[in-house]
């Protein structure tokens, strides 16, 4: 039963599902708004033009919102450490009159450098350092030094904590790491939105996982590369987003105040018909809808994947946000947003997703040494850009080989990374430090790369509750079963046959609880790998004739 549910949830995670058209008068949503996007006529001529685009040259990583955590994973009034571009921040969510707000500071007390994330939120809503009790307001101004007789207005300006703008948006905590014009946060643009998340008809299931051995750019490129889905994940729904000579990909991009966005679209109607038993019986003409596999990238962190009809409607969206926790690492945040009758328990979804992510984590981590080494090489040659040599290509475009029709979008993203990453905060310094420390030579052992406890359990309160409950059920079932056995042997008056179901029931519950508990820890074997390799859809094994 659980496996069936897992299968179902994986279909949700890969954007399976479509919406029936509601009528011709439906408004086309922003995925199909062509007026703001540049539709490609000649992709290759456009690509060479855009790879030197001044818009990318102007791209400023510090002038964007970054998602750092789901709000539901941070306890109310409990300062928590998050990381963004290799800088640790202390973040706390507070509640005043039913309104939630966020305090966010660089995680260093101005007094003697202690971590503010070890502190507490006071009753008045200030963040108080746990070391000597200095308190700070939302703007970082020091409002109390318990040991000082001076008034707060007399404190040195050096006593201020470094606060950063922070907001809650669609259940995520967002930080703005860069300078703000006139210190007026109301002038900042909104973070990117997923419209379906605000629609009450859709249920949202949120997931999180840290990847200490996968650079955030590699993770984003992986998410936007549907070709790997059928091999690494053995999931045929990825085919809806992959291009082929028959089903060409259309790539559009737009530049606006919110930054750079790319949309790729692949006709999915025929593919859908071929794999759907009911639709297969229909002719193309009789198909009730025109379905497109749509992938959107909102630089530099946000991706959505969905199948949409002509009106731009969908029943499922899989949304991703990749937090650039630092160079060579990342935090994966995703949401399955679907028209479901109920919200599946979060922990069930997390078991499915951990299993799904394990399937290609080692593969993506294994890209890290060659790709980051290529970046270092380009930086050595040209401090300004990863685009070291126009003829040879940049760090990624010079390293990778593009042969698939899907590479239209994959290659464009690589051009974007090559054009802009040298400007990513602290990237050059961290890359050089990683190289010096020998971290670009190989990847850590599988046990580290796939450590579900550190990467997920330790940061997910829902899964922690599940593990606690499983441990309780396991221990209770052991005690009850043992007590039944002892009592049956000692007391001849007890009818053992009548109550046989007691040990069976409790042993089953204990076994199930232990199986669930184990899913939150390192759980990989050669058998898993063999099973995954054998599960690749047969039609993908097309050996050259
Ligand atoms: S280090 Fe924070 S109050 Fe002293
Ligand atoms: Fe979880």
Automatic annotation (TrEMBL):
One of its GO terms (cellular component) is chloroplast. Keywords: 2Fe-2S, Chloroplast, Iron, Iron-sulfur, Membrane, Metal-binding, Oxidoreductase, Plastid, Signal, Transit peptide, Transmembrane, Transmembrane helix. It comes from the Eukaryota. It is found in: Membrane; Plastid, Chloroplast. InterPro entries: Cholesterol_7-desaturase, PaO, Rieske_2Fe-2S, Rieske_2Fe-2S_sf. Pfam families: PaO (PF08417), Rieske (PF00355). One of its GO terms (molecular function) is metal ion binding. The keyword Nucleotidyltransferase does not apply. Residues 1-19 form the signal peptide. SUPFAM superfamilies: Bet v1-like, ISP domain. PANTHER family: CHOLESTEROL 7-DESATURASE NVD (PTHR21266:SF32), IRON-SULFUR DOMAIN CONTAINING PROTEIN (PTHR21266). This is Rieske domain-containing protein.
């Amino acid at each position: 039963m659980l496996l069936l549910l897992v299968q179902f949830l994986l279909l949700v995670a890969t954007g399976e599902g479509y919406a029936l058209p509601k009528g011709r008068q439906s408004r086309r949503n922003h995925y199909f708004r062509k007026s703001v996007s540049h539709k490609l006529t000649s992709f290759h001529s456009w690509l060479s033009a855009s790879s030197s685009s001044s818009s990318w040259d102007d791209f400023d990583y510090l002038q964007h919102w970054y998602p750092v955590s789901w709000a539901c994973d941070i306890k109310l009034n409990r300062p928590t450490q998050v990381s963004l571009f290799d800088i640790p921040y202390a973040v706390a969510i507070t509640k005043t009159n039913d309104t939630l707000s966020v305090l966010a500071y660089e995680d260093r007390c101005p007094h003697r450098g202690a971590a503010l994330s070890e502190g507490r939120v006071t009753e008045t809503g200030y963040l108080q350092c746990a070391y000597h009790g200095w308190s700070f307001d939302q703007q970082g101004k020091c409002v109390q030094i318990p040991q000082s007789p001076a008034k707060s207005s007399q404190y040195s300006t050096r006593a201020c904590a470094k606060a950063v703008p922070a907001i809650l948006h669609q259940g995520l905590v967002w930080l703005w790491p860069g300078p703000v014009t006139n210190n007026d946060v109301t002038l900042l643009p909104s973070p990117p939105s997923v419209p379906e998340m605000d629609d009450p008809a859709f249920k949202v299931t949120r997931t999180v996982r840290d990847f200490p051995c996968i650079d955030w750019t590699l993770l984003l490129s992986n998410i936007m590369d549907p070709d790997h889905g059928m091999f690494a994940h053995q999931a045929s729904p990825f085919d809806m987003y992959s291009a082929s000579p028959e089903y060409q990909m259309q790539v559009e991009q737009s530049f606006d105040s919110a930054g750079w966005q790319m949309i790729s679209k692949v006709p999915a109607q025929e593919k859908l018909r071929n794999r759907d038993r009911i639709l297969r019986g229909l002719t193309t003409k009789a198909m009730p809808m025109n379905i497109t596999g749509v992938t959107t990238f909102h630089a530099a962190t946000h991706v959505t994947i969905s199948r949409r009809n002509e009106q731009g409607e969908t029943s499922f969206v899989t949304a991703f946000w990749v937090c650039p926790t630092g160079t060579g690492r990342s935090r994966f945040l995703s949401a399955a947003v679907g028209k479901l009758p109920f919200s599946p328990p979060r922990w069930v979804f997390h078991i499915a997703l951990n299993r799904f992510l394990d399937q290609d984590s080692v593969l993506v981590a294994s890209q890290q040494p060659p790709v980051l080494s290529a970046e270092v090489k380009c930086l050595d040659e040209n401090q300004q850009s990863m685009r070291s040599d126009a003829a040879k290509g940049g760090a990624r475009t010079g390293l990778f080989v593009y042969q698939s029709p899907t590479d239209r979008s994959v290659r464009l993203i690589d051009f974007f990374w090559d054009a802009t990453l040298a400007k990513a905060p602290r990237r050059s310094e961290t890359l050089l430090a990683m190289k010096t420390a020998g971290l670009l030579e190989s990847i850590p052992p599988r046990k580290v790369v796939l450590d579900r406890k550190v990467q997920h359990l330790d940061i997910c309160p829902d899964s922690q509750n599940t593990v606690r409950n499983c441990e309780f059920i396991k221990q209770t079932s052991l005690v009850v079963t043992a007590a039944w056995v002892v009592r049956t042997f000692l007391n001849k008056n007890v009818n053992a046959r009548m109550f046989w179901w007691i040990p069976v029931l409790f042993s089953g519950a204990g076994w199930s609880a232990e199986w669930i508990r184990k899913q939150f820890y390192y759980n990989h074997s050669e058998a898993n790998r063999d099973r995954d390799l054998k599960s690749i859809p047969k039609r993908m094994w097309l050996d050259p004739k």
